[in-house]
Write a structure and sequence with these properties.
Chain A has about 425 residues and is of the alpha/beta class. Chain A contains eleven helices and 18 strands. In chain A, strands 12, 13, 14, 15, 16, 17 and 18 form a seven-stranded mixed β-sheet that branches. A four-stranded antiparallel β-sheet of chain A has the order 1-3-7-5, with no helix packed on it. With about 200 residues, chain B is mainly alpha-helical. The chains are: A alpha/beta (about 425), B mainly alpha (about 200).
Chain lengths: ~425, ~200
């Protein structure tokens, strides 16, 4: 293949020849000679076909947002000498290169192997394809090149970032029969002291309260609060209208972070956790237990991109028909939908306990605009509107207004673990 | 090194504007001189922009303007010597090659943050390429000077039709030379590389 420089030289030569014949000037013809000589020398140095074997190895095939992955490439020249080989590994924009480069020049002799590595840090979750590798052999005069593309591609699955919410007490407020770690306010098997009663035949000796027995002069037994498990369903609002801010710091990405953190927390305390995602399609993961369920939820979240125009009401319909009636509903939404309050009230009407975790879109926008005085004024107006809306929502549900630049655990600090009293 | 390449390209663009500016002494009419100067300055600005933004194609405007003023006026108005005109043509060629190299190698060189084996190898490739380009330009200039006596023989067709045929033949020769790498009988036959040794 010829570069544009060849076309330029040929064009220049043609113009000079035309000029020479029009003006009948032999000196103009003489000026064509250096151009032709340069082309001739370039023809001698034209690069051969690129025949290079490529092996790409990733240090991890699954990782999380913000964790480094090393990509190692090994090239073996199976053809003639490539004096100026440009190598470029195709990367998604969300993979930030922090060490080394995916774009190098190298001189490869026949059979010579060349290895290089670079490290990327994913800034957005998702499933990425690294590659194909583009190779371009250039001649040193900039006149010709040969290109080849290696079909070798690697897949990298990037899970969403997880926040540390270990100290947060987000648990289902209604429990089911299976044993778990949620205090049920009922007598049963557990570790937390609940009350004392008279000893009954069959009570375990280790449950006898000996100090109380000594004081009352009759056998008394400790009763414990039953620890059960409950159901929770997290509803993630990933519609196009709910996305605010650049992709890596958008409300959708913050919502995904909150979703996966809360799911991990809920599953850790032996509860069942399910997921509903509102995007182009309304897809869901039915509640389940354990680490495997967490992987299912993470896999569902990895491919979430903001999109779709589903009305919020559809979630109520799905929850009422396909999910357990006594489940704790956690809605993760920036609350940009005017009907959010109606939906939460409707869910309360169906008997669900609702917790709303709302990544604040105005904080995301404020971070983007910085210290602009007009933006500050707009921020104050929008903040007042949002506060009023959240205050209205608090009549039906616990609402957590979360600034995504702050830790989620701080925002969740005020969430109460026990059923609401009305 | 990326910065050095870019600065060299800018210096080349600015320096190549000097010879055409010197040719302007033959323009006596004030408005013509003003127009020509404006065009030259515009071409130089475009050239500097092309060097800074690594857009060698934009420098075609600069090359055309420099060529028109430098070579056109030198050939037909100031009657410069062939040696001078050859040097200027090779200079314009060198400016374009430098811009092309800056665009091709600059982004890669700029991306290297640390000094390691990979960056050293990349730099060696670029230096070799620049060296060979310089050598090729020297060959082009020296070869053209050597061929000059052939242009002073006074032989050749004087009939217009024969001159036209000669022109077409010359253009075909240029095209053949340009197509050599793809046809590559020369490379296949004469410059066949030694076969690669068997793997160990």
């Amino acid at each position: 293949m010829r570069t544009s420089l060849v076309a330029g030289l040929l064009g220049g030569a043609a113009i000079l020849i035309a000029l020479a014949f029009l003006a009948r000037s032999w000196r103009a013809v003489a000026l064509v000679v250096p151009l032709l000589l340069y082309l001739a020398v370039g023809a001698l140095l034209a690069p051969p076909k690129v025949r290079v074997a490529v092996v790409r190895v990733l240090s991890h095939e699954r990782t999380a947002v913000g964790r480094a992955v090393e990509v190692r490439l090994r090239l073996v020249n199976e053809g003639e000498r490539l004096a100026g080989l440009e190598v470029f590994d195709n990367l998604a924009d969300s993979l930030e290169v922090v060490k080394g480069r995916p774009h190098v020049f190298v001189d490869l002799r026949p059979r010579e192997a060349f290895e290089f590595a670079y490290t990327v840090v994913p800034t957005v979750k998702g499933e990425y394809v690294i590659g194909p590798l583009l190779m371009r052999a250039r001649d040193p005069l900039g006149l010709h090149y040969e290109e080849a593309r290696s079909g070798e591609e690697a897949r990298l699955v990037v899970a969403p970032r997880m926040e540390d919410v270990r100290r947060v007490r987000v648990v289902p407020r209604r429990v089911r029969m299976p044993i778990g770690l949620v205090r049920s306010r009922q007598i049963g098997v557990g570790t937390e002291f609940f009350s004392i009663r008279d000893y009954a035949p069959g009570d375990e000796t280790r449950h006898i309260n000996w100090p109380a027995t000594a004081r009352r002069d009759r056998l008394l037994t400790n009763e414990y609060e039953a620890e059960r498990s409950g159901d929770a369903v997290i509803v993630l609002d990933a519609r196009a209208e709910s996305e605010v801010g650049p992709v890596a710091r958008s409300t959708t990405e913050a919502g995904i972070t909150a979703t996966v953190s809360l799911a991990a927390k809920i599953l850790e305390t032996r509860n069942r956790c399910g997921l509903i995602v509102q995007r182009e399609v309304l897809d869901w993961v039915y509640p389940g237990y354990g680490r495997r369920q967490l992987y299912r939820i993470v896999d569902a979240l990895v491919h979430v991109r903001a999109g779709g125009e589903w009305a919020f009401e559809h979630v109520t319909w799905v929850l009422a028909r396909f999910f357990p009636r006594d489940a704790q509903i956690v809605i993760v939404s920036p609350l940009l939908d005017a009907k959010a309050m109606e939906v939460v009230a409707d869910l309360r009407g169906h008997g669900f306990d609702v917790l709303v975790v709302s990544p604040s879109p105005i904080e995301v926008e404020r971070a983007a605009f910085g210290a602009d005085p007009y933006a500050t004024l707009s921020y104050r107006v929008l903040k007042m509107e949002r506060d009023a809306m959240i205050q209205g929502l608090r009549g039906y549900a616990d609402v957590v207004d979360w600034d995504p630049s702050q830790p989620l655990a701080v925002a969740l600090k005020g969430v109460r673990p026990y059923p609401r009293r009305r | 090194m990326d910065r050095a390449l870019r600065i060299a390209a800018i210096v080349a663009v600015v320096a190549m504007a000097v010879p055409p500016a010197l040719e302007f002494r033959v323009i006596e009419q004030g408005n013509q001189l003003l127009g020509a100067s404006a065009l030259l300055v515009f071409a130089a600005v475009v050239g500097v922009w092309a060097a800074v933004r690594r857009r060698p194609l934009a420098a075609r405007i600069t090359t055309a303007a420099y060529g028109a003023f430098g070579i056109g006026l030198g050939l037909f108005a100031t009657d410069r010597s062939v040696t001078y005109l050859l040097a200027y043509a090779v200079g314009l060629l060198g400016m374009n090659v430098l811009l092309h190299h800056a665009a091709a190698y600059g982004p890669v060189l700029a991306a290297f943050r640390e000094e390691d084996a990979v960056s050293r190898r990349a730099r060696a490739v670029v230096l070799r390429s620049l060296g060979l380009s310089g050598a090729a330009l020297a060959v082009a200039y020296g070869g053209a000077l050597l061929l000059m006596p052939a242009f002073a023989l006074g032989a050749g067709p004087t009939d217009p039709l024969s001159a036209l045929a000669a022109a077409v033949g010359f253009l075909l020769l240029v095209l053949l030379l340009a197509l050599l790498p793809d046809v590559s009988p020369f490379r296949r036959g004469v410059l066949r590389r030694r076969p690669a040794p068997p793997p160990e």
